[in-house]
Amino acid sequence: MTQLAHDRLPCGVEYGVVSLPHRRVVSFQIMVLAGAATEPEDRLGLAHVLGDTLDKGTELRSGRELSDAFDAIGASTGTGTGREAVTLLCTVLPEHFQRAIELHAEMLCRPTFPEDAVQVNVELARQELKALEDDAHSFMDKLISPLAFGPLLGRHPLGERETLDALSRDDLVAHWRSCFCAERMLVAVAGPVQPSQVANALEKHFSAFGESGQSQGRMPLEAAFTPGTKHHAKQLEQQHIGICWPGVGYTHEDYPVQRVTLGILAGGMSGRLFTEVREKQGLVYWVDAWHSTPRGCGMLFMGASSTPDNCAKTYETMLREVDRLAKDDIDPEELERAITGIVASNETRGDLTRSRCNEMANDLFQFGHPVPIEEKLAKVQAVTVKDVQDYLMKYPRDSLCVVTLGPKEFARP
């Protein structure tokens, strides 16, 4: 059984540690619960720009000096912004773990947000947003998310052109002061470190970070699903279609069944959607199914790219394949293949040190405590054909959100 540790420090930071004594590197994630959903409505994109500007200068170092300090310890770092959190990632040799935490604390607690860096990152966000429109899959995600999750959880981290144009350095400073603090921090660590080392480093460097009482961002936000059909006209050779309906969240007892169901539908080239929609009927260039699970909720998605004339048939065929699973049309070998794929993925890609760190971060974010990976996989391995059928009957597709992107208006059959 994996050795896990979890606690909340006097300073307010919550942390979890996966002890992996024989690994050669340490990976950690610092999540600050101050993502896109916390932005003012007229400043969308603010959290993304703030996250990208944290490392551009502190009270002690310029951006160049900070970069040199990370390079001196061979640290691999990154920053990402999502619906609910700004996340800082780092992988480093064990002997430099304390120094890496110290440098991240400097970025988070003492940023200066240089004016020129702010303007550069705003312009980069504008360019990313523009490039998004040329990436059909990503653009579809931006179009369907507000309908799937509502006006807060459905926000895209890059915001909108008009809100990016309104951003200023003062906005970043105000958001940092109101939302960035130790009480909104979740820290996950994996590798050859002791929990006491982690606790001491975090308490030392974050003990005075932010004001008390800033922890309201720890509460999950409610999703607001909006069924219906929406078309976004765009001159493309292909027509892209996205379908969404409510499922379950990461902590729900039916979540393992949801994972296996998606594995049957979209588990590689043997998945139902690939074999039935693409290989047998040749309706699509690309087809897939997935889920998205902010805290406290979950949505299932299917997506495909087809020709405008085949869009309606593609829509019907994808939903038919889901309905077939609910009507006693699952081969036991198909179920076993989906389960094996989930387990094998964990044993290969999922066993990397940074992946174990990400698993811990997700546990803290979703459950509020670590859950042994063996326990999660045991629940997946226990899923039966009847479980999948019961799940699909319990969560029917009678309320759908459908979005299309392309040259032809889509009328749902």
Question: How does this structure look, described?
Answer:
- The protein has 413 residues and is α+β, with helices and mostly antiparallel strands.
- It has 2 domains: 3-214, 2-Layer Sandwich (Cytochrome Bc1 Complex, Chain A, domain 1); 228-406, Cytochrome Bc1 Complex, Chain A, domain 1.
- The protein contains 15 helices and 11 strands.
- It has helices at residues 46-53, 63-72, 97-109, 115-132, 136-153, 161-165, 169-179, 195-206, 255-266, 272-280, 311-326, 332-347, 353-366, 373-381, 385-394, and strands at 3-8, 14-19, 26-32, 76-81, 86-92, 185-191, 228-233, 239-246, 284-292, 299-306, 401-406.
- Strands 1-2-6-3-5-4 form a 6-stranded mixed beta sheet.
- The longest helix is centred in the first third of the chain and has 18 residues, at 115-132.
- The radius of gyration is 23 Å and the shape is globular.
- The mean pLDDT is 94.
The rough form would be described as: globular
Low-confidence stretches: none
Number of helices, where a helix is a run of at least 4 consecutive DSSP H or I residues: 15
Distance from first to last alpha carbon: 51 Å
Q: In percent, how much strand structure appears in the residues?
A: 15-25%
CATH topology of the largest domain: Cytochrome Bc1 Complex, Chain A, domain 1
